[in-house]
């Protein structure tokens, strides 16, 4: 293998040159794997920083947009060694068949009037680019490998390493420079500061040389080793000096500053104004990281030409309803009466055993919904924000089919270590791990993945499907205009949701119960309501159960009115007793009551007809609680 | 209508201008910043904005803060000054522009700041919700209760806030014959009768298809319920 090195202050651009059989690249292969717009860029960059968090202090990320022209631009290009290596290679690509965008870049850089835009993404309180070139490390993952990731723990947002490819996609020069301060000094040298640049060009040939180059190039100190030459980072004082000249200084806190040279949005033709870009950055950061920002784990700033904006979760109107929902997610309510109300319930997630047979604790995730008000921003109306402990919204799941009439909502599904603020359980931690492996390379869904197949035994797909089915049913229940209410459920009661039976009018109202099967029917027979139904616990083993049956009048728009008093209820099952008190019927069942039929009727209406407003749509509600063993 | 000023709408993105300090009246919006988010409505409907400006100024200067009878005085003028169809009136952007850009002083003069959410509705409600936006509600209630040039029922309704609350926050308020019948029949009744009658009427409508009921039939229904209730 030959090498092409251009030394200045013993750092320079180094390109691997390929022999006759070397693979050829038409550009960076990972560039095409992800849809790249500004939102994706911000999301991926923040995810990388968020994943490298140190335990103590919040991660702080600053996006700094710089515009250079004239002498400043010339000084920067000089520091980048544009005329001592990089420029020649880019010119070589530009004159080849697929190098039209690079030709444009070369022209712009040579034109003294033309501006150069740089984006510096600086993170603080992160591990930094630790580790060696030839080991499984942050450093190798970010600057050496393609599609390979090394993340810290089970909470990390990424587990594929695809995200970093956006850095090069957004560079018109396909060039990114890293300046890092390591949280832990290198073992051998005690060094802490590390700088390296990386370009990803298509395969090309220099005019005055015979060799062709694969395209991967590094701004580095090329070092001879047993396996030939390899790019070595620039360390400590040398790194500091070069960083200063590259406008890539950073504070003395651990973390990494990343410079995207000639920043541009590949999905847009025209260059955007800085203010617009800054707005887009703030909005994207809040849209996908509001749980982390709100919890104080992440701080995002955007600077442009000296002005600074802090990403405040309350500044983005489309996100405010989700935030309110999150803040009240522990609310005991299970109905959404008025706009702005928040109600929630726990959704079970049965994690299958791990691949090695180790049993996993069952977990729950928290679903909470907020009824939308007409004053809310409706960009993300009827969506569920899915997220876990990493604090990144994986997806805004569209559930608009659950909404109806004017009953719209914003909802969250807080999972794993984000489920509660009061300390996570072993179940929460397993859910966290499970869902992390359920994220595809883009981290934009929870689905059946190769990672899940490797980490868990069969049943992972079913577990996810069941969770989403229950989320939909639960949401339907919360949003329903005549939802039930939870009253003093005891700890021994395993009832997950309040339960609806049938309704006076036949409308689809599926029971969200996972504990009982039940059905009911009711009709007005001229002077009173008659009803019947059946209740059947799904579990085989139980000590007993109780069910309360009530009738409620409903208005045209779903408003609930006074109870219609029930006069009597009967069941022929031998292990059941029934009674009526204050117009509410009650069934008390023993351990043998595995399927119970009942019927009954309301008090008689003395007078009044269908036009009197005394008799109208009436809802039959069954609220059942199951007692299982133990206490 | 004498003048034909073009009516505008505030874009979705313009909602971001409405922060807590604006809702409280602590800051005014920067006209240049606002202009970016204001655009003409489709088909460019018009209104006599000079007349509306005058009417709003009169009402604000002749009433103490938070007096409910501002509504009745202004509703007819809002309705007469804006030459819009119901379809146009269904565009929330029009009402957001009027409340946020044109008449924020009126909104704050009429409505006390009790919470951010409540005040936000007064500026940014509208759409299918007849009851929230401070100007939208005036236009719609006038639209549903006027009879040609006769706005006497509109006044009657606004004289009785129980009626405004109990009728226009319900679904049947979108059906004009029902609104006219119930407002007319209940105008002299005490609050508790209005309360109970509208509740029963809403319940009875689960048995009767509302759109099949004429104004005469709706009146009979309301009278029968009132007799039962009293």
Explain this structure to me?
The complex is a heterodimer of chains A (631) and B (230). Chain A has 631 residues and is α+β, with helices and mostly antiparallel strands. Chain A is 21% helix and 30% strand. Chain A has helices spanning 38-51, 70-79, 86-94, 100-110, 138-143, 165-169, 236-245, 274-294, 320-327, 426-437, 450-455, 460-479, and strands spanning 3-8, 11-18, 59-68, 116-124, 175-181, 193-200, 204-205, 212-225, 228-232, 234-235, 255-261, 298-304, 307-310, 342-349, 363-371, 383-387, 393-398, 409-414, 516-524, 529-537, 544-554, 560-564, 566-570, 576-581, 584-589, 596-602, 618-627. In chain A, the strands form four sheets. In chain A, strands 1, 2, 3, 4, 5, 6, 7, 8, 9, 10, 11, 12 and 13 form a 13-stranded mixed sheet that branches. In chain A, strands 14-15-18-16-17 form a five-stranded mixed sheet. In chain A, strands 21, 22, 24, 25 and 27 form a five-stranded antiparallel sheet that branches. In chain A, helix 3 (86-94) packs across helix 4. Chain A starts with a strand and ends with a strand. Chain B has 230 residues and is mainly alpha-helical. Chain B has helices spanning 20-24, 31-35, 49-62, 70-81, 86-89, 92-102, 104-110, 116-124, 136-145, 152-159, 161-168, 176-186, 191-204, 215-229, and strands at 5-6, 8-10, 38-40, 46-47, 82-83. Chain B has a three-stranded antiparallel sheet. In chain B, strands 2-3 form a two-stranded antiparallel ribbon. The mean pLDDT of chain B is 90. The chains are: A alpha+beta (631), B mainly alpha (230). The A-B interface holds A 315-317, 339-340, 373-375, 377, 379, 406, 553-557, 559, 561, 608, 610-617 and B 12, 15-16, 92, 117, 120-121, 123-129, 132-133, 170-172, 197, 199-208, 210, 221, 224-225, 228.
Brief digest:
The complex is a heterodimer of chains A (631) and B (230). Chain A is of the alpha+beta class. Chain A has twelve helices and 27 strands.
Which terms summarize this structure?
heterodimer, A: 631 residues, alpha+beta, 13-stranded mixed sheet, five-stranded mixed sheet, 12 helices, 27 strands, 21% helix, elongated, disordered N terminus, B: 230 residues, mainly alpha, three-stranded antiparallel sheet, two-stranded antiparallel sheet, 14 helices, 5 strands, globular
């Amino acid at each position: 293998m030959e090498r092409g090195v251009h030394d200045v202050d013993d750092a320079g651009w180094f390109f691997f040159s390929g022999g006759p059989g070397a693979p050829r690249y038409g550009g960076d292969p990972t560039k095409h794997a992800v849809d790249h717009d500004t939102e994706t860029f911000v999301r991926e960059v923040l995810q990388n920083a968020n994943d490298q968090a140190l335990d103590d202090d919040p991660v702080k990320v600053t996006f700094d947009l710089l515009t250079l022209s004239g002498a400043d631009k010339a000084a920067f290009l000089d520091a980048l060694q544009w005329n001592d290596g990089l420029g020649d290679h880019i010119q070589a690509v530009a004159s080849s068949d697929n190098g039209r965008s690079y030709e444009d870049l070369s022209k712009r850089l040579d034109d003294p009037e033309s501006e150069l835009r740089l984006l510096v993404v600086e993170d603080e309180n992160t591990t930094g680019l630790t580790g060696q070139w030839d080991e499984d490390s942050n450093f190798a993952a970010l600057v050496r490998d393609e599609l390979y990731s090394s993340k810290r723990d089970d909470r990390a947002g990424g587990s594929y390493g695809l995200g970093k490819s956006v850095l090069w996609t957004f560079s018109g020069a396909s060039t990114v420079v890293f300046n890092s301060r390591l949280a832990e000094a290198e073992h051998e040298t005690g060094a802490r500061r590390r700088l390296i640049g990386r370009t990803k060009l298509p395969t090309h040939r220099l005019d005055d040389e015979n060799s062709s180059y694969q395209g991967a190039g590094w701004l580095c100190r090329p070092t001879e080793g047993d396996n030939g030459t390899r790019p070595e980072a620039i360390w400590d004082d040398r790194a500091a000096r070069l960083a200063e000249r590259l406008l890539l200084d950073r504070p003395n806190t651990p973390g990494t500053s990343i410079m995207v040279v000639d920043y541009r949005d590949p999905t847009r033709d025209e260059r955007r104004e800085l203010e617009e870009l800054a707005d887009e950055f703030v909005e994207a950061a809040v849209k996908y990281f509001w749980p982390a920002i709100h919890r104080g784990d992440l701080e995002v700033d955007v600077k442009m030409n000296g002005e600074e904006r802090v990403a405040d979760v309350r500044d983005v109107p489309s996100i405010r309803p989700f935030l309110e929902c999150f803040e009240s997610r522990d609310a005991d309510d299970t109905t959404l009466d008025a706009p702005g109300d928040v109600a929630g319930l726990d959704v079970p997630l049965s994690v299958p055993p791990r691949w090695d047979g180790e049993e996993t604790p069952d977990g729950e995730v928290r679903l909470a919904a907020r009824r939308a008000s007409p004053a809310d921003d409706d960009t993300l109306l009827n969506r569920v924000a899915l997220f876990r402990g990493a604090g990144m919204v994986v997806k805004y799941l569209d559930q608009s089919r659950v909404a109806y009439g004017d009953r719209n909502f914003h909802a969250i599904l807080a999972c794993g270590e984000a489920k509660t603020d009061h300390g996570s359980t072993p179940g929460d931690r397993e859910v966290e791990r499970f869902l992390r492996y359920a994220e595809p390379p883009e981290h934009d869904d929870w689905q059946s993945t190769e990672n899940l197949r490797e980490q868990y035994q069969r049943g992972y797909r079913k577990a996810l499907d069941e969770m989403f089915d229950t989320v939909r049913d639960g949401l339907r229940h919360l949003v329903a205009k005549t939802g039930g209410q939870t009253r003093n459920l005891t700890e021994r009661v395993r009832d997950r949701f309040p339960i609806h039976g049938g309704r006076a009018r036949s409308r689809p109202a599926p029971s969200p119960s996972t504990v009982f099967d039940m059905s009911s029917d009711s009709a007005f027979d001229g002077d009173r309501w008659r009803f019947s139904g059946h209740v059947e616990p799904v579990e085989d083993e139980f000590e007993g159960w109780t069910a309360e049956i009530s009738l409620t009048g409903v208005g045209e728009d779903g408003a609930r009115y006074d109870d219609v008093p029930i006069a009597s209820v009967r069941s022929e099952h031998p292990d059941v007793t029934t009674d009526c008190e204050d117009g509410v019927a009650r069934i008390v069942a023993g351990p043998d009551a595995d399927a119970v039929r009942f019927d009954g009727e309301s008090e008689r209406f003395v007078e009044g007809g269908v036009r009197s407003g005394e008799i109208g749509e009436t809802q039959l509600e069954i609220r059942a609680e199951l007692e299982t063993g133990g206490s | 209508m004498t003048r034909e000023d073009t009516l505008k709408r505030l874009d979705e993105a313009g909602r971001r201008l409405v922060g807590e300090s604006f809702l409280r009246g602590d800051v005014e919006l920067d006209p240049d910043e606002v202009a970016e988010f204001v655009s003409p409505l489709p088909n460019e409907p018009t209104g006599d904005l000079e007349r509306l400006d005058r009417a709003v100024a009169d009402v604000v200067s002749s009433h103490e803060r938070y007096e409910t009878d501002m509504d009745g005085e202004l509703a007819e003028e809002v309705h007469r000054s804006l030459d819009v169809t119901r379809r146009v009136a269904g565009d929330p952007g029009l009402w957001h522009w009027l409340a946020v850009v044109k008449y924020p002083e009126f909104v704050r003069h009429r409505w006390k700041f009790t919470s951010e959410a409540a005040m936000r509705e007064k500026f940014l409600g509208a759409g299918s919700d007849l009851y929230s936006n401070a100007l939208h509600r005036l236009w719609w209630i006038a639209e549903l209760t006027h009879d040609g040039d006769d706005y006497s029922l509109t006044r009657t309704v606004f004289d009785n806030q129980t009626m405004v609350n109990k009728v226009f926050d319900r679904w049947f308020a979108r059906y004009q014959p029902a609104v006219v019948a119930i407002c007319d029949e209940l105008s002299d009744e005490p609050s508790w009768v209005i309360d109970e009658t509208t509740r029963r009427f809403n319940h009875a409508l689960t048995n009767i298809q509302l759109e099949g009921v004429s104004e005469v039939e709706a009146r009979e229904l309301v009278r029968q319920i009132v007799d039962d209730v009293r």
